[in-house]
Specification:
Elements lengths: L3 E11 L6 H9 L6 E8 L5 H8 L4 E5 L4 H12 L2 E7 L3 E3 L3 H11 L3 E12 L2 E8 L2 E4 L2 E4 L27 E3 H7 L15 H11 L3 E12 L9 H22 L2 H6 L1 H12 L4
Parallel strand pairs: 1-2, 1-4, 2-3, 6-11
Antiparallel strand pairs: 4-10, 5-11, 6-7, 6-10, 8-9
Length: 281
Amino acid sequence: MKSAEGLVSITIVNWNSSGYIEKCLDSIKKQLYPAIELIVVDNSSTDSSLEYIAKNFPQVKIVKNKENLGFSKSHNLGIHLAKGEFILPLNFDVFLEPDFVGEMVKMMKNDSSIGIVSGKLYRQTNGNKTKILDSTGITMRHCFMHPRGQSEEDRGQYDNSEGALVFGACGAAPLYRKAMLEDIRSGREFFDEDFVNYVEDVDLSWRACLRNWKCVYNPSAVAYHERGATRKDNTPMKKDYLIFGLRNRYCCIIKNLPARYLKKNFGKIFLKETSFLLMPI
């Protein structure tokens, strides 16, 4: 399918999102950027969120899954339906400032080798905006992935780095060039579906890096993230987050790390991993 030039396709995976989806969709509706299509993939929600979307946003394309297929597979379904030159997978617990999409696209248009853009995500807590950073892009050091700036108070320490290269973008609200996704996909998978949930954004960023696509940061693209909304009051999901997040992290390393790098830097990686695994949960 040929992509429509300039169009941004926003894909949202919905699962029992009442209390969040209303504000998320309202923030999309208020975007100043004019060319947006919205695709919602519903993972068999049992609350009223899907009915709300269908009633209040009839223009939205909706895919109804009979079961919860997880983050990766559901977003892949949405991306295959997308007509846009750019793809923005968006968590339903992310709320965009009105110029977010426009600022993200601006960076893409600066350089055709840019495949991923990260904006500035702030932490939102119980519906209240904060000046605590959630992510200013993903960094990588000795195979340890980290959302840059996470939990730091924003004092403008990243504001002078517009266009700066970062390893990747947080999967809560990245902007991807569709041509990049087509370049790195495996079969019909853009996100690796074996990951199901967690670390799939790091894996995708790593594969893009290996194919020489750039990821850059734009501090003028601002959004707020109520991190962990789906698992906030769900103990089993919190446990899965730790177990599968760790498993997927090692799968990501094994899958993408060149053997020569592992051999050369094994000592540094071992020390970093040891300190990480000894941290109290």
